[in-house]
Amino acid sequence: MPAKEILAAIRDLEAAGWRIVIASGHAHTYAKAFCPGGQDGCAPLMIYGTPKVPEHEAKKIQRILTRCPHTCSGSEEDK
């Protein structure tokens, strides 16, 4: 099971509309995340469940989420 920081980042991805697929038996990969933009979206994101520094993995996920133009963010709600 991944660290709490990684799980929180995964919940943020799900809330933003990303599809999460839990990997089964793939070395250190815990899950794969797919952008809500579909085939024209961002490349799939590999999420590692046992990195040396879980905070770095969580920051990587947050950085990708922030940069994704297809994410269902609060920007449309602000209008």
Summarize the structure.
With 79 residues, the chain is α+β, with helices and mostly antiparallel strands. The protein has helices at residues 4-15, 54-67, 75-78; strands spanning 19-22, 29-34, 45-48. A hairpin with a 6-residue loop joins strand 1 (19-22) and strand 2 (29-34).
Structure description:
A hairpin with a 6-residue loop joins strand 1 and strand 2 (29-34). It is globular and about 30 Å long. The chain has 79 residues and is of the alpha+beta class. The chain has a three-stranded antiparallel sheet, covered by helices on one side. It has helices spanning 4-15, 54-67, 75-78; strands at 19-22, 29-34, 45-48. Helix 1 runs parallel beside helix 2.
SSE inventory with pairings:
Elements: H1 4-15, E1 19-22, E2 29-34, E3 45-48, H2 54-67, H3 75-78
Helix pairs in contact: 1-2
Main attributes of the structure:
about 80 residues, alpha+beta, 3 strands, globular
